[in-house]
Amino acid sequence: MSDNLTGLASAEERPNLHYPIVNPETGRKYFPPPNRGWAKSKKVIDELITKGQIIFPRNPHSRPRLKHYVKDLLSVRTGFSSVLLKPYTTDGTRELMEIFGEKVFAFPKPSSLIKVLVQQLSTTSDIMLDSFAGSGPTGQAVLDLNREDRGNRKFILVQIPFETKEQEKEKFNICQKITAERVRRVIHGYTYTDSQGKKEKVAGLGGAFTYASVGKPLFGEYRDWGKQLPGYEDLAKYIFYTETSKDFDRKAMNEKTGKIGEHHGTSYYLLYTPDGQQDRQLDMEWLKGLDKTETNRNLVVYCEKIWVHRDDLAKFELETKRTVRPMIVPFNLK
After folding, report:
1. 63 and 57 in contact (C-beta within 8 Å)?
2. What are the extents of the domains in the chain?
3. How many CB atoms lie within 10 A of CB 143?
4. By C-alpha distance, which of 182, 178, 175 is closest to 161?
5. pTM of whole model > 0.85?
6. Is 96 left (phi over 0), alpha (psi -120 to 50) or beta?
7. What angle do CA 251, 253, 257 make, to 5 degrees?
8. Sign of the torsion formed by the C-alpha atoms of 49, 55, 56 and 61
């Protein structure tokens, strides 16, 4: 590997770094940029020339460069090189063709490359996020490493469904047909035909993953509903998860009473109508009409209107030994 020898000091700042470097074989002189100079003193350069670590260019308009050896680029801390000479992009193409039996993605990154990077940067229990997943090599790399060292790394792959107008027109969803399918095949194993026409079987790496898609936004940037109101269940699911970080149980939801779930002694309610014609309100009538089976002492109530005076609410809490936290939708949504 080679590196540029130019520095960042002008002749006024560092006059000792402004001198000609002479090729001992040809006698040709090479001068540094007037406003930058060389990065090393003449004494050091002469020593490097003697050791054969200076590369002289054939082009008279180019400048000498410093030669580095890969063994010298190894990190003292990790033992890994800061320069990767392989694998190559062609390895990624070959790998993907073996998995799918045809060329399905342009210039895919080889999973072996991602594997090296993950190995350098992660512990055996980290979560790898690839925001531009493409053909999914990160997922394969993580699964492969977990199999090797019995690690428990996890991965999150994010990929838009269409990258070209042609894919969108043909409804060729990359996430579904390439990214997720690749991960699925390397988990369970696959068979491919080699260059000699022989069938080769590749054992599965094991593991599991969940395929999910991002739904439509529930509200706008400024907490406005936009043109179309979200459905009751969609909003209930969002509220319950943001409040508890737990999965939503649809069977626990009762749109009539407004109760959407419980967690750690707290009941969560949503008083909301997606038709936009009426507003469900939190008032004393609703509080007094709470289901007799409600045993939790903490209530979080998301509603469209609050029609209860704080003094009345405080009296209710004192008499029933309950605490009520009113929240207005959409403005108090997290």
Report:
1. yes
2. 2-68, 89-203, 232-328
3. 24
4. 175
5. no
6. alpha
7. 140
8. negative
* Dist. CA 201–CA 194, nearest whole Å: 10
Q: Is 25 helix (H, G, I), strand (E, B) or coil?
A: coil
- What token pair was written down for 83? 């320069």
Q: Is 216 helix (H, G, I), strand (E, B) or coil?
A: coil
CA distance 260 to 296: 13
Q: How far is CA 47 from the centre of its chain?
A: 47
Instruction: Give the SS3 label for residue 137.
Output: helix
CA 108 to centroid of chain Cα atoms? 17
Backbone dihedral angles phi then psi of residue 130, each to the nearest 5 degrees: -115, 105
Q: How far apart are CA 29 and CA 327, in angstroms?
A: 77
Residue 128 pairs with which residues in a beta bridge? 155
**Which amino acid belongs to residue 274?**
P
- Calculate Rg over the CA atoms of the chain: 32
User: At which residue do the structure tokens 């002289």 appear?
Assistant: 56
The two tokens of residue 85 are 């000479």
- Asked if residue 159 lies in contact with residue 134, where contact means CB atoms within 8 angstroms, the answer is yes
Q: What is the pLDDT along the chain (334 residues), one digit of tens a residue?
A: 445 788 878 888 889 999 999 999 999 999 988 888 898 899 999 999 999 989 998 877 788 988 876 565 555 445 556 666 667 667 888 999 999 999 898 889 999 999 988 988 888 899 999 999 999 999 999 999 999 999 999 999 999 999 889 999 999 999 999 999 999 999 999 999 988 889 999 999 999 999 999 888 887 777 788 778 899 999 999 999 999 999 999 999 999 999 999 999 999 999 999 987 788 999 999 999 998 889 999 999 999 999 999 999 999 999 999 999 999 998 888 8
Report CA 303 to chain centroid distance, whole Å. 34
Give residue for tokens 């390895």: 91
Rounded CA-CA distance 53/39 in Å is: 15
Q: Enumerate the H helices of the chain as residue ranges.
A: 42-50, 89-100, 111-121, 137-149, 165-170, 174, 180-188, 232-244, 284-288, 310-320
Residue type, 58: R
